[in-house]
């Protein structure tokens, strides 16, 4: 099963490495406008294969994406000194205007997984350009808050002293400052957070909650401050999303996809728990949020929609 990655900077190449380490797919093609970079990354990762899983990885052109089941798009430009967020967004929109049709011309049936930030807006654009080629919205999704959800579950698991895999907790909304931690819908072993704490005789104070929330929200800032970029977490999240698609797994992940309406906001791409199969998005699973969380989700949807409205696509 063939996987393509367009944009082999830190995020794209770490996703490739994570796929190889986990043995996901059988062939990985790396494409970048900087061909010496994609070729170097492909060679470097190829040399890890004898220590991992027997799959193939090489660099190529868009035409080499033919027959890919999934293509990750992690291509993008970084902020120039003095450039506004909006100007950067416009330049990334221009990258996607170029890249998305080329990907879909070569990989006609692929599911597109967008990783470029701001991911909700870039996924909306990808779905717009794909739509112009007759590709349905379910075949375009973004990494959304998959990583934020993992951070939330990891921190809750640590505090509750339980394997994070058994903590069902979601971060929804924008992958960014307005994201919403849905505390009210957390469950562990079928119990609510409060019930689990009672049964286990644990204390989760308002201050503990605030600390967990802050660590989830500030994670990217802290990492960027310390090492300039984040890529291991997102690379692993992308590998997880790709495996759910390739295995037609019907997994539930907080990827972002196009949603008709959230409160008063129409046609917005936002992260919510989505059921995913081999063809991409199947459906979103509505959340039972409390009133405050619901309001925050609507604000988050408006933040994304305003950003979409501010650019020319
Ligand atoms: P990140 O940390 O998000 O991975 P990088 O700047 O490291 O960001 O990587 C972005 C990659 O996207 C770079 O390797 C760059 O060459 C690539 N890229 C930018 N524009 C295009 C484009 N139009 N087509 C293909 N690749 C592109």
Mind explaining what this structure looks like?
It contains nine helices and 16 strands. The chain is an alpha/beta fold and 313 residues long. Strand 2 (27-31), helix 2 (35-46) and strand 3 (56-59) form a beta-alpha-beta unit. Helix 1 packs across helix 8. Bound molecules: adenosine-5'-diphosphate. Adenosine-5'-diphosphate binds at residues 6-12, 32-34, 37, 74-78, 95, 98-99, 229.
Order of helices and strands, N to C?
EHEHEEHEHEHEEEEEHHHEEEEEH
Number of helices: 9
Termini separation: 33 Å
Derived structural class: alpha/beta
Number of strands: 16
Tell me about the largest β-sheet.
Answer: 6 strands, parallel
Question: Which regions are unreliable across 5 or more consecutive residues at pLDDT < 50?
Answer: none
Level of helix content?
40-55%
Q: Ligands in the structure? A: adenosine-5'-diphosphate
| Oligomeric state as shown | single chain
Name the shape in a single word.
globular
Beta-strand percentage range: 15-25%
Mean pLDDT: 96
Strand order of the largest sheet: 3-2-1-4-5-6
How big is the Rg? 19 Å
């Amino acid at each position: 099963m063939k996987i393509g990655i367009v944009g082999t900077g830190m995020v794209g190449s770490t996703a490739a490495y994570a796929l190889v380490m986990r043995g996901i797919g059988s062939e990985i093609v790396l494409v970048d406008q900087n061909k010496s970079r994609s070729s170097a990354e492909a060679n470097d990762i190829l040399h890890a294969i004898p220590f991992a899983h027997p799959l193939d990885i090489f660099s190529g052109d868009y035409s080499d994406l033919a027959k890919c089941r999934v293509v990750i798009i992690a291509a993008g430009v970084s902020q120039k000194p003095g450039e506004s967020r909006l100007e950067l967004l416009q330049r990334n929109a221009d990258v996607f205007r170029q890249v998305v049709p080329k990907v879909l011309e070569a990989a006609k049936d692929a599911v597109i997984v967008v990783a470029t930030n701001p991911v909700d807006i870039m996924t909306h654009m990808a779905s717009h350009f794909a739509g112009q080629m007759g590709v349905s919205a379910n075949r375009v999704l973004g990494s959304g808050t998959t990583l934020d959800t993992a951070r939330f579950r990891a921190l809750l698991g640590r505090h509750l002293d339980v394997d994070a895999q058994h903590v069902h907790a979601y971060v929804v909304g924008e992958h960014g400052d307005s994201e919403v931690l849905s505390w009210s819908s957390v469950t562990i072993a079928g119990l609510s957070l409060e019930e689990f704490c009672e049964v286990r005789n644990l204390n989760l104070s308002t201050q503990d909650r605030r600390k967990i929330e802050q660590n989830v929200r500030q994670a990217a800032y802290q990492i960027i401050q310390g090492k300039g970029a984040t890529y291991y977490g997102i690379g692993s999240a992308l590998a997880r999303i790709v495996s759910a698609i390739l295995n037609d797994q019907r997994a539930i992940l907080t990827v972002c996809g196009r949603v008709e309406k959230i409160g008063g906001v129409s046609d917005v791409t936002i992260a919510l728990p989505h059921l995913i199969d081999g063809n991409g998005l199947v459906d979103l699973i509505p959340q039972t949020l409390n009133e405050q969380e619901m309001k925050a989700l609507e604000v988050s949807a408006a933040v994304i929609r305003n950003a979409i409205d501010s650019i020319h696509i």
